[in-house]
Amino acid sequence: MADYVIAIDQGTTSSRAIVFDKSGSIVSTGQLEHEQIFPKAGWVEHNPNQIWNNTREVIGQALSKANITRHAIAAIGITNQRETAVVWDKTTGQPVYNAIVWQDTRTQDIVNRLAADGGVERFKKTVGLPLATYFSGTKIVWILENVEGAREKAEAGDLLFGTTDSWVIWNLTGGVNGGVHVTDVTNASRTLFMDLETLQWDDEILKAFGVPKSMLPEIKSSSEIYGHASDDSLLRETPIAGILGDQQAATFGQAAFQQGEAKNTYGTGNFIIFNTGEEIVHSENGLLTTLGYKLGDAKPHYALEGSIAVTGSLVQWLRDNLGMFSSAPEVEALAKTVEDNGGAYFVPAFSGLFAPYWRPDARGALVGLTRYVNKGHIARAALESTAFQTAEVIDAVNADSGVPLTELKVDGGMTANDTLMQFQADILGVPVIRPVVAETTALGAAYAAGLAVGFWSDLDDLAKNWQEDKRWEPNMDSAERDRLYRNWKKAVTKTFDWVDDDVQ
């Protein structure tokens, strides 16, 4: 009997397979990191073959640790880093170039070219997104224009594009031997190509970008059977039945199913999603309009999203580039050696600034330095930057929705950091709440897959699984909160206008 659902979480820094039981509890996990490739300043790449090989291996790890076989698995759910673009040859199965990661900024010239006629909001009413290097559409254009022979192969119908969900599913269902080429509405809504109302690729926008429609996957709902694992897989014949982009998956895993509910994920970057129900809400305050989820034939749920590029990856940068500590959790101990930030503010605009500013010309800045500042202050300033950036996006959500958030549900690796979570509650002035299962991204993908095959019956069934683990109440006085936040906003302005023609 099938007692479990397995989720494949293909993230920015690692690929994981997690087995969940009916209560939404974790049974076992397999995880492998993949290489972060930085060929030039602003360029970020992954090796798609390494990602696929790691995915196969972590499936084996998870099954082995749980001491189960495929027969115990009811369905496979997929969640993924959403805007990272893979282009591959459908006859050989080989990528024509490395995956270009969502953090990559090389396509700014393409953005500028497309924005010359109508500005960065040229397609926003249709797709909910501004023109920006963040989204996968411009990355496809870069590959077609810069990889020898790619344009010709694409025009001949020989190349396929996908975000990493599509790449994993195509390989998992057989690859060159009948692999299924699909994505779901949440991932499709991050390309710059999908019409929010029709949930289909927009022919006029594809023409403006010069991207052949034949490259694109078929858009499906977030919860249905797309295909089955191929015979050479440890999961052979198991249905692949759920796809959600990572942030939408985390929202689904947090059981934020209804209009007005929201969550914030603390990962490589931070991502706040606010469920707007069946209504498409166009932001006036720098947020993205995106798909929340679509279950089978039911109506889609939309969302507002605030995307922050650098949060957890700033801690990695302090570890790897500056050698300030040897493991990421040590940042908290270092930050606790001081009582405050010592006047230092760290704005990590390594990939420009995302929401609510959308400033590709910004670059990172550490400001307010005096001889008093030490590495403890810098560690604290790094953690505080995550909370400050979140506060700015929450302000935008409150302004767009007209209904201020009264609490914030949180998930992701950084929520293990008590110092950060307490400061987050303090700077927001509302409680911050972490669920028992913090791996909500993988859980959301498992939920979507399980719903499609009847493993779970409905959303009420899933909502019953959600349990509070820890709550942080604000305890900072309002004058201090206002002072810190005012200085943060001042620090942000120091990052603007850095990039020009001869500075990258």
Automatic annotation (TrEMBL):
Its EC number is 2.7.1.30. InterPro entries: ATPase_NBD, Carb_kinase_FGGY, Carb_kinase_FGGY_CS, FGGY_C, FGGY_N, Glycerol_kin. GO terms for cellular component: cytosol. Sn-glycerol 3-phosphate binds at T12, R82, E83, Y134, D246. Inhibited by fructose 1,6-bisphosphate (FBP). It is an enzyme of class 2 (transferase). ADP binds at T12, R16, T268, G312, G413, N417. Keywords: ATP-binding, Glycerol metabolism, Kinase, Nucleotide-binding, Transferase. GO terms for biological process: glycerol catabolic process; glycerol-3-phosphate metabolic process. ATP binds at T12, T13, S14, T268, G312, Q316, G413. Glycerol binds at R82, E83, Y134, D246, Q247. SUPFAM superfamilies: Actin-like ATPase domain (SSF53067). Residues 4-253 form the Carbohydrate kinase FGGY N-terminal domain. It catalyses: glycerol + ATP = sn-glycerol 3-phosphate + ADP + H(+). One of its GO terms (molecular function) is glycerol kinase activity. Residues 263-452 form the Carbohydrate kinase FGGY C-terminal domain. Coiled coil: none annotated. The keyword Transmembrane helix does not apply. Pathway: Polyol metabolism; glycerol degradation via glycerol kinase pathway; sn-glycerol 3-phosphate from glycerol: step 1/1. Key enzyme in the regulation of glycerol uptake and metabolism. Catalyzes the phosphorylation of glycerol to yield sn-glycerol 3-phosphate. Belongs to the FGGY kinase family. NCBIfam families: glycerol_kin, PRK00047.1. PANTHER family: GLYCEROL KINASE, SUGAR KINASE. This is Glycerol kinase. It comes from Plantibacter flavus.
